[in-house]
Amino acid sequence: MVVDEKRGVIRRSLPAAAVFALVLGALAFFYPDIRDALGTAPGSPRSGAATHALYSTPPVPSRCELPDDRDEDIRRTLNALARCLDRMWTASLRTAGYHYEPPSEVNLVETPGDASCGQGDEGWAGIYCPESRSVNVLLDASWAFSDMFTLAHEYAHHVQEISGIADQRGSEIFDEAWSRRLELQADCMAAAAMRDVDPEALAMVRAAAGSAGAEDEEWAAHRKTHGSAKNSAAWIGRGERLGTIGACNTWAAPEDQVS
Ligand SMILES: [Zn+2]
Question: Quick check: keyword Protein biosynthesis in the entry (predicted)?
Answer without folding.
Answer: no
